[in-house]
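_Backbone structure tokens_
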Amino acid sequence: MTASEPAQYAVFGQPVAHSLSPRIHNAFARQLGIALEYRPIESSAEGFAAALKKFADLGGAGANVTLPLKQVAAKACASLSDRARRADSVNTLSRSGDGWHGDSTDGVGLIRDITSRHRLFVRGRRTLLLGAGGAARAVAFALLDAGVPELTIANRTPERADALADAIGQPKRVHTRYWDDLGNWGAFDLLINATSAGHGGAALSLPSSLLAPRAVCYDLSYGKAAFGFLAWARSVGAEHALDGLGMLIEQAAEAFELWHGQRPDTDALYAELRAYVPGNAED
């Protein structure tokens, strides 16, 4: 890459062709007058190291990482931020010397969307987290930092939920439950769906007893991938049924600021994409 060429950025994932990240980052760049090129790169977990090296050799300056690569990306980094190290999950890569520095902006993106955009509180809510993958790991720590008094983690592979709870190391606040036994553990004020079930069109079978009055249900996915969970949430009386479009935009804004030292405004872009991506019950 020559000095006159724009800096190269990308999002890695599988699948990734549908990703809104290029549209989001290119919009941020236009807003702030920054020259860059941002593109999707399809990569499996097994091929990620080679794909990342090729991107670096072509002058890659930074990248985002989505399913199923967030924990794989953490292992590819020469250094990690504190929040990425805690979660063992990376969604933002920055070129640092001959290596990559990894960070995780998922958690702060979720909290900012819930509290700032939707004007809802997190502190004090008894919370159920469904899933234990890379995004779930980042979100778990962020929820606890934001004041969730009790976090219950359930995953169809219970060993992954147990591993996440062990990594958090707060047994008085963090518990794991078997998926098929969720209905016996009372009602929750906040339900976070961090599973990938919606991406494959699978429906989650959940008991209605999970919802407390005025509960908030939030799917980290957006668009069609969130339809099943949001439909269930509305059918059992959730006060708020929210998808992850706002989280996607807010975590992108955090990554953009890490790369460029300037924070973009997100409200206009959220309104534009909200009209493009159907999702929330109240939208």
About this structure: The chain has two domains: 7-105+246-276, 107-245. Residues 7-105+246-276 form a domain with the Rossmann fold fold (CATH 3.40.50.10860).
